[in-house]
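Retry 2 of 3 after timeout on previous attempt. Resubmitting structure tokens to design endpoint.
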């Protein structure tokens, strides 16, 4: 990998660090391709149970590298569709994802963080839907994610103004899960990732899919999807192990089978 640092923590946690610190980790075409490759690997490798996404050099991601794009050119639509593939791989990854955010998360970088299941922000974090200030509309799933996270009116305010909000402001409007000091950030994320990695992978993956699809379903459809998911769970060794562990008053071991 030329633009990403990829490492394993406790075998089950895959940590991916955007690594263009001189550009505040702005995403160029090479990084888009490498992100797609890593996300496919995380999807297909059963030993990966959690993905942590962060940035090098005190920034999360300043967005797409505009010096590496041809906006308005003949290939813009195909380029955007390849970027969309990365957003969809992240959204549909059947494993928990954690954004570990320090410094700026702007544009596509902001929406990449929002596309993760849980966001832990250091107190230096800043978030911006900066697109409009560059004469652009939101992308990387911002039009889908923002209204679901913070409501339509607040989503429009952030998208129309490109305002930069700090970590405390992001927590106040529900954009992030937690804000911790920069000194605590690494440890808090590592502890959370380890906890999630010990969970039942199949049940967590099904739960993620249920929640992702919930706002597009009626109550009847949601209940049917839950019933189908529980039917799948009931056939797994993990569910049998969890029930045995409960009855035997011990911690379960989940093999993901």
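Retry 2 succeeded. Sequence:
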């Amino acid at each position: 990998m030329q633009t990403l640092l990829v490492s394993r923590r406790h075998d089950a946690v895959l940590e991916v660090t955007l690594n263009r610190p001189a550009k505040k980790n702005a995403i160029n075409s090479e990084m888009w391709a490498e992100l797609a490759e890593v996300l496919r690997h995380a999807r297909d490798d059963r030993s990966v149970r959690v993905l942590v996404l962060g940035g090098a050099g005190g920034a999360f991601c300043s967005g797409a590298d505009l010096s590496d794009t041809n906006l308005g050119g003949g290939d813009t639509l195909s380029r955007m569709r390849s970027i969309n593939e990365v957003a969809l791989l992240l959204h549909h990854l059947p494993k928990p994802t954690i954004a570990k955010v320090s410094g700026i998360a702007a544009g596509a970088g902001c929406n990449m963080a929002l596309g993760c299941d849980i966001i832990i922000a250091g107190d230096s974090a800043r978030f911006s839907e900066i697109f409009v200030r560059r004469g652009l509309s939101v992308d990387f799933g911002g039009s889908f994610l923002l209204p679901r996270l913070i409501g339509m009116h607040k989503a429009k305010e952030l998208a129309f103004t490109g305002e930069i909000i700090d970590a405390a402001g992001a927590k106040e409007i529900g954009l992030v899960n937690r804000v911790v000091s920069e000194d605590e950030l690494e440890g808090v994320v590592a502890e959370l990732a380890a906890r999630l990695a010990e969970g039942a992978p199949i049940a967590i993956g099904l739960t993620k899919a249920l929640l992702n699809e919930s706002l597009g379903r009626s109550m009847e459809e949601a209940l049917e999807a839950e019933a189908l998911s529980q039917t799948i769970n009931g056939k797994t060794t993990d569910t049998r192990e969890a029930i045995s562990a409960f009855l035997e008053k011990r911690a379960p071991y989940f093999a993901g089978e």
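Attempt log closed. The beta strands are 4-9, 13-18, 50-55, 97-101, 104-106, 118-122, 126-128, 164-166, 178-180.
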